[in-house]
C-alpha cells in the first residue's frame, strides 16, 4: 500500500541562544527580578534594577496577573538598542543596553531604561496568564503553556507600544515620526489600506515593512483604550488567555460588542482626520516646490545621508532596497552647474560602491575617499559599529577601528584627526581618533543615559553635536576645546539633531513644531531659520551650494526618499501642531533609596530544573500493508540557563510498531568559545520490508568551534562516536572512533523572493571507526552541499541543487554505518538525508550512497491576505519542478506483484552496487504562510513519480509543512 505522507514541523518557540562566552556574569536579586549582568557594568545593572522595580510598580495597577519573579539579562552584545521578552519556560527579559540612535523609530524617548522595561515587561504580563482550560494544563505541563504567546503580533507589540507612550509625552505614539507616517500615507493614498490581518505581518515587502504591528497595532490598542478605558486591554488579555490560540476575534465581541477590525477602522478614521487637519495647516503656511527622485524597477525604501564632495562634483548617499544589503552609492556630474539628478532613469547614472550595515553617517575625507561607519561582527560574538574608509578609485574598503564601537565620524578642518561618538552600555562619549584609527581619546563624556550624535566642526576649536538627556529633550550643543566646556548652541530650537557644517553655517533637523524640518543656523546672527515646511518628516539634508538646492531625505508613503528643492529667498514657516491625545497613565517614581543587592557570581545551574514537559505523537513506518504502520507516543523536557551556558533535552517514548521503548539525552555547554556537546540515545527503528526492527545505541561527544580566519558562517567539530547496532537473529555489532568535520551556511531570503537566490551550504564529516574499540575498522565519509542559482533566469526564479554522499568503502554490513534512503519524510533535512521522492521511506538501505536533488522554483502569485483575526495568513504561491537521483552500494526491497498484501512475509532485499541509478521526477505547489500569527511555514503539495517499479517506484502524493532551505 502506498501512503500519503503528511508531515508537520513545529518551529521551536524558543531556541538556546549563546551570549558572549568571555563575559564574567554576575547576578543579584530584587523583590521581583533576578538581574544578570556583566561584572564590569554593576552601576548600570543597579540602574536597570531600579527601573525594573519602577516598571513593576507602575504596571501593577493596570494588570492583574504577575509572575513571582522575572529574569532580567543585560546583554551588551549589540550596538543597536533593543530587547525581547518571553514567558516560554520561564519569564525573562533580555535588554541590549545601548541608547537608541536618531534613526531608530524608538528615538522619541524619555528615560530610556524605564521606557524599554515598560515595553518589555508589558510583554511578560501579556504572556503570563493561563485561564480557563489552560490553567490546569499549565499546572501539569509547566512553562511551555503560554496561550498568549500565540496571540497576534499586532496585539502584543501594539499594546506594549501604546503602554510605552502612556506614561509621558514621549514614546512612539507621541513621536513626530509616527504622526509623519500618517500624513505621508494620506498624501500617497496608502492610508487605511491594510486589514487587521495584514497589520500583523512583518514580512509584507511594502512600506512600512516590519513596523506594521508596532505602528498600526498601537493605533488599534490606543483606540481600545480611548473607547473602553485603561483596563480594557488587560480584560482582553485575560480573555485571550482562556481561548483556543488562533481564535482571538471573539474576545472583543464578547467583552465590548465590537470586533478588532471595527477598532482598526475607527483608528484609521480618527488618526486620518487629525492627519488631514494637520496637512491643511501645514500647506496653508506655504511650501516650496520639490522634485521627488524616483527610482525605476527598484523597491528603494530608505535613502538618506546625502553628502557632496569638497570639489562639488560627487554625491554619495545610502540606498536600501529589497533583496540586497544597504549600499553607499555615488553620483557624479561634469560641472557644479549640472544637476546630480538629470532627467532619465536614476539607476543608469548611479554607481554602487560598497555595502554597509547600520550606517549612520557618510563624510568625505577628500574628493576620492569616503569615511563611514558600519556594524560588523567583532570577536565572533559582538555586533559593533566601527569606522571605515573607502577609496573610490581603487574600489577598496579599509577598516580603521576594530571593536571600538564608534560612529558618526567626521574629519577635522586641518585634516589631523577624526572625531566621532563612541558607544558604551548606557551612554555615549565624544572621542578623538587618529587618522590610522589606532589611537582613541575621550573629549567629552556626559555619563549614563545621555545620548550624543552626529558631531560636526564649526571651526578648528569648536565641535557641534546633538545631545539628549533623560528628560527627552534633544538640543544642539558645542564643545570648545579651548576651555573644554560644553554649552547650548545659541538660537537653536529644542528637539534638534543631525547638525552638518555647510558654507556659512550649520544645517540641521528640528521637530520643535511637531514636524521634523530642515533648518539653517547663522553663526553671525546666532539665529535659526527654517528652510523647509514638509508635510511629513524630514530626516537629514545636504546643500548644493552652486545650484542653491537642498538635497533632502523626506518621508513618503513608500519610505524615506530623496527630494530636491530650491533654497531661494522664499522663507518656510512650519506651523506648530497640537499634540494628538494619547491615554495617559500615572507614573510611579523610581525607588529613591538604594537597593540592597547581594551580588553573586553567576553559575546558571540553579535555572536547570525542568520547567515543562511536552507530550508528542507520531506515526511510524511505511509499507505494503497496514501492519507496518505504528504510533510513537513520547514526551520531552529540558532546560537552559538564561545566558546559554548549559542546555539539555531529554526525551523518550514507546513505538507500537516495534513494541519497544526509545529515549535520548542531549547536553550542550557554551561557557567557552569551544562548545562541548554530548548525546546518548537508544532507538528502535523499524526496517521496512524485513518486518523487524533494529536497535541502535549511540553515544557521542563533540566539540564545536569557529574556524580560524574564516567568518561565522563556518564551524568545525571534533568528536567521538560510539554506535552499537543489533537486529534479532543477526547479532550485535559495535563501532567506535573519532570524528572531524566542518559546516558552512550562508543563506538569506527577503522581500518578494520565494527562495534564497544565492549562497548555499557545505558540510563534511569523517569518522574513523577503529577495531581496537569495536568490532570493525571502518572509514566513513559524509559530505555534501547545496546552492541556489538565479543567473540569467527571470526575476525570482531560482534553481536549487543539492548533493549528499555517505561513503563507507570498507563496510559491507548493513547493520553498521547504514544509510537509509527514500521519499521525503520531513519538511527540511540536514546532513546526508538522501531524499529520493517517488519511493517509500526506507526503500533503499546501503553502506554507501550518493544522491542529487534538483528543483526549479518559480513564482505564481503574491497574495498577502489573511482571514481577519484567523490563525492563517497567505503570502505567496509558487511551484517547483523536481528531479532526484541516487546511486547506492547496498540493496532495495523488491516489489512482488504476486505477493499477498496481507502477508507477513518480508520483501526480498536485492543487492546492487553503484553502477545502478534510481531516479524520479515530480512537481510541487507551495504556499508561503504565517501560522498562528508568528510562525512562518511553507505548505507543500507534491506529486512524484519514481521510475523503477521493482523498487516500489510509482506515483506518490505528498503533503507537508516545513521550510525550503
Describe the 3D structure:
With 965 residues, the protein is mainly beta. Helices cover 13% and strands 42% of the residues. It has 9 helices and 49 strands.
In short:
The protein is mainly beta and 965 residues long. 13% of the residues lie in helices and 42% in strands.
Helix percent band: 10-25%
Number of DSSP E strands:
49
**Rg calculated over all Cα atoms:** 31 Å
- Average of the residue pLDDT scores: 90
Quick one: biggest sheet?
Answer: 19 strands, mixed
The global form is globular
Beta strand %: 35-45%
Structural class: mainly beta
Uncertain stretches: 1-17, 826-831
Number of helix segments?
9
- Distance from first to last alpha carbon: 30 Å
For this entry, give a set of tags.
965 residues, mainly beta, 42% strand, six-stranded mixed sheet, single chain
Amino acid at each position: 500500500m502506498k501512503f500519503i505522507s503528511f508531515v508537520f514541523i513545529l518551529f521551536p518557540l524558543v531556541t538556546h541562544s549563546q551570549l558572549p562566552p568571555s563575559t564574567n556574569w554576575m547576578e543579584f536579586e530584587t523583590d521581583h527580578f533576578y538581574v544578570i549582568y556583566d561584572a564590569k557594568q554593576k552601576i548600570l545593572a543597579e540602574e536597570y534594577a531600579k527601573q525594573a522595580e519602577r516598571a513593576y510598580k507602575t504596571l501593577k495597577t493596570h494588570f492583574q496577573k504577575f509572575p513571582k519573579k522575572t529574569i532580567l539579562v543585560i546583554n551588551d552584545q549589540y550596538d543597536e538598542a533593543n530587547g525581547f521578552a518571553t514567558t516560554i519556560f520561564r519569564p525573562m527579559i533580555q535588554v541590549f543596553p545601548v541608547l537608541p540612535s536618531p534613526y531608530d523609530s524608538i528615538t522619541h524617548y524619555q528615560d530610556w531604561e524605564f521606557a524599554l522595561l515598560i515595553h518589555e515587561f508589558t510583554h511578560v504580563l501579556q504572556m503570563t496568564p493561563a485561564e480557563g482550560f489552560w490553567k490546569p494544563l499549565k499546572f501539569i505541563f509547566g512553562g511551555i503553556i503560554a496561550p498568549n504567546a500565540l496571540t497576534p503580533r499586532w496585539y502584543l507589540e501594539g499594546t506594549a507600544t501604546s503602554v510605552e507612550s502612556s506614561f509621558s509625552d514621549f514614546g512612539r505614539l507621541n513621536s513626530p515620526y509616527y504622526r509623519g507616517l500618517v500624513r505621508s500615507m494620506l498624501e500617497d493614498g496608502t492610508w487605511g489600506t491594510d486589514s487587521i490581518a495584514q497589520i500583523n505581518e512583518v514580512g509584507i515587502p511594502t512600506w512600512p515593512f516590519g513596523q506594521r504591528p508596532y505602528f498600526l497595532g498601537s493605533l488599534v490598542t490606543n483606540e481600545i483604550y480611548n473607547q473602553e478605558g485603561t483596563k480594557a486591554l488587560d480584560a482582553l488579555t485575560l480573555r485571550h488567555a482562556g481561548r483556543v490560540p488562533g481564535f482571538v476575534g471573539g474576545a472583543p465581541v464578547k467583552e465590548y460588542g465590537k470586533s478588532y477590525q471595527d477598532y482598526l477602522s475607527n483608528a484609521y478614521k480618527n488618526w486620518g482626520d487629525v492627519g488631514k487637519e494637520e496637512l491643511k495647516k501645514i500647506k496653508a503656511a506655504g511650501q516650496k516646490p520639490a522634485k521627488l527622485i524616483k527610482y525605476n524597477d527598484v523597491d528603494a525604501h530608505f535613502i538618506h545621508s546625502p553628502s557632496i564632495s569638497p570639489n562639488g562634483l560627487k554625491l554619495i548617499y545610502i540606498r536600501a532596497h529589497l533583496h540586497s544589503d544597504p549600499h553607499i552609492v555615488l553620483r557624479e556630474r561634469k560641472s557644479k552647474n549640472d544637476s546630480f539628478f538629470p532627467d532619465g532613469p536614476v539607476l543608469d547614472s548611479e554607481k554602487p560602491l560598497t555595502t554597509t550595515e547600520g550606517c549612520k553617517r557618510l563624510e568625505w575625507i577628500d574628493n576620492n575617499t569616503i569615511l563611514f561607519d558600519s556594524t560588523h561582527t567583532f570577536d565572533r560574538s559582538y555586533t559593533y559599529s566601527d569606522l571605515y574608509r573607502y577609496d573610490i578609485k581603487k574600489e577598496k574598503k579599509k577598516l580603521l577601528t576594530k571593536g571600538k564601537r564608534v560612529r558618526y565620524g567626521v574629519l577635522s578642518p586641518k585634516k589631523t584627526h577624526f572625531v566621532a561618538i563612541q558607544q558604551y552600555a548606557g551612554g555615549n562619549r565624544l572621542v578623538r581618533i587618529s587618522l590610522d584609527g589606532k589611537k582613541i581619546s575621550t573629549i567629552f563624556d556626559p555619563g549614563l543615559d545621555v545620548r550624543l550624535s552626529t558631531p560636526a566642526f564649526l571651526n578648528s576649536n569648536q565641535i557641534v553635536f546633538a545631545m539628549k538627556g533623560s528628560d527627552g529633550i534633544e538640543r544642539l550643543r558645542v564643545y570648545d576645546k579651548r576651555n573644554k566646556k560644553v554649552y547650548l548652541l545659541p538660537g537653536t530650537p529644542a528637539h534638534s539633531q543631525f547638525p552638518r557644517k555647510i558654507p556659512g553655517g550649520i544645517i540641521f533637523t528640528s521637530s520643535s513644531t511637531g514636524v521634523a524640518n530642515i533648518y539653517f543656523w547663522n553663526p553671525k546672527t546666532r539665529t535659526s531659520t527654517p528652510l523647509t515646511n514638509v508635510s511629513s518628516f524630514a530626516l537629514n539634508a545636504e546643500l548644493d551650494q552652486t545650484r542653491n538646492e537642498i538635497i533632502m531625505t523626506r518621508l513618503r508613503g513608500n519610505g524615506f526618499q530623496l527630494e530636491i528643492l530650491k533654497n531661494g529667498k522664499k522663507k518656510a514657516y512650519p506651523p506648530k501642531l497640537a499634540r494628538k491625545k494619547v491615554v495617559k497613565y500615572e507614573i510611579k517614581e523610581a525607588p529613591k533609596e538604594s537597593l540592597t543587592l547581594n551580588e553573586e557570581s553567576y553559575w546558571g545551574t540553579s535555572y536547570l530544573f525542568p520547567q515543562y514537559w511536552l507530550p508528542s505523537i507520531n506515526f511510524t513506518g511505511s509499507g505494503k500493508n497496514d501492519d507496518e504502520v505504528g504510533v510513537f507516543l513520547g514526551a520531552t523536557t529540558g532546560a537552559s540557563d538564561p545566558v546559554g551556558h548549559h542546555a539539555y533535552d531529554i526525551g523518550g517514548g514507546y513505538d507500537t510498531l516495534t513494541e519497544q521503548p526509545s529515549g535520548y539525552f542531549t547536553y550542550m555547554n557554551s561557557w567557552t568559545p569551544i562548545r562541548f556537546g554530548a548525546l546518548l540515545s537508544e532507538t528502535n527503528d523499524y526496517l521496512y520490508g524485513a518486518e523487524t526492527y533494529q536497535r541502535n545505541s549511540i553515544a557521542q561527544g563533540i566539540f564545536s568551534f569557529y574556524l580560524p580566519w574564516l567568518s561565522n558562517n563556518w564551524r568545525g567539530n571534533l568528536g567521538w562516536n560510539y554506535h552499537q547496532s543489533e537486529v534479532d537473529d543477526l547479532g550485535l555489532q559495535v563501532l567506535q572512533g573519532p570524528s572531524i568535520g566542518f559546516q558552512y551556511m550562508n543563506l538569506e531570503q527577503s522581500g518578494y523572493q520565494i527562495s534564497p537566490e544565492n549562497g548555499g551550504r557545505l558540510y563534511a564529516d569523517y569518522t574513523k571507526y577503529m577495531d581496537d574499540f569495536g568490532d570493525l575498522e571502518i572509514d566513513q565519509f559524509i559530505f555534501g552541499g547545496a546552492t541556489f542559482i538565479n543567473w540569467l533566469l527571470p526575476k525570482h526564479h531560482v534553481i536549487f541543487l543539492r548533493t549528499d554522499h555517505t561513503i563507507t568503502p570498507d563496510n559491507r554490513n548493513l547493520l553498521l554505518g547504514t544509510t537509509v534512503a527514500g521519499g521525503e519524510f520531513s519538511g527540511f533535512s540536514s546532513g546526508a538525508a538522501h531524499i529520493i521522492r517517488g519511493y517509500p521511506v526506507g526503500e533503499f538501505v546501503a553502506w554507501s550512497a550518493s544522491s542529487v536533488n534538483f528543483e526549479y522554483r518559480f513564482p505564481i502569485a503574491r497574495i498577502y491576505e489573511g482571514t481577519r483575526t484567523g490563525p492563517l495568513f497567505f503570502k505567496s504561491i509558487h511551484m517547483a519542478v523536481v528531479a532526484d537521483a541516487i546511486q547506492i552500494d547496498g540493496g532495495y526491497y523488491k516489489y512482488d506483484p504476486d505477493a499477498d498484501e496481507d502477508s507477513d512475509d518480508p520483501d526480498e532485499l536485492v543487492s546492487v552496487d553503484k553502477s545502478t541509478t534510481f531516479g524520479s521526477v515530480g512537481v510541487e505547489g507551495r504556499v508561503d504562510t504565517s501560522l498562528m500569527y508568528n510562525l512562518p511555514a511553507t505548505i507543500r503539495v507534491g506529486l512524484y513519480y519514481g521510475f523503477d517499479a521493482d523498487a516500489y517506484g510509482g506515483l506518490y502524493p505528498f503533503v507537508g509543512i516545513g521550510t525550503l532551505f
